[in-house]
Predict the 3D structure of the following.
Amino acid sequence: MLPFLGICKDFQYPERKSSFCIITKRQAGSIKDVLINSKHSEFDLPVNKLRVIHEFASGLAHLHAHNVIHRDIASRNILVSYSGVAVVCDFGLSRAIDPQPDQDVVDPVNFKETYYRVSQQQMLPVRWMAPESLNSGKFSRKSDVWMFGVTVWQVLTSCDQTPYETLATANQVIITVCTGQGGPMLLESLSHLPACLHALRDLVSQCLQVLPSDRPTMAQCCQLIKSLQVAFFFFLAEE
């Protein structure tokens, strides 16, 4: 995660009641920028894609462990340091939620415990959002997992295109995702992946399940990616 250094108040204009978050600046850019500008370089190799996916998955798992949902997970919000480490940033839409893990069945009385409902006035990243977020404005750890799946899809495709690029409008995207066609549409474009990354395609498929209860947790995603890294290491060693 992007290190937090402190908060600065605007003492010159106190009537504005402005606060500024101080973070580190030394970053090479977003993972989207780096992948687009590093085609056919070492950063574009499967082993490095697997590494950076594990790094930002670990950051999201850390957030969830501390009862925070991000709500804006996308390649543009994953920064890469000059040393090549991927970190999660841009917490403007993040919200704290109840410590209890997401339930398979939502209790309307205790709805606020595990979900955050967004107001209709906010600008939201429609092409990355889960069906329940688009349908009802519900955000949870599992909607973060959906967004993580879309972001992994971006990394695997080297950020060559925007999610659902053939759909021109937000309404078309909403209809496609909410009718269960969003996941299959994205997965279709991963059919060209090398054999060593097929397991990541399966992970994307799990993350893009329509029902939140059918998606893995971020901790489970991290475990799977870590096991893939180990398997990949032994594969390279044998080569």
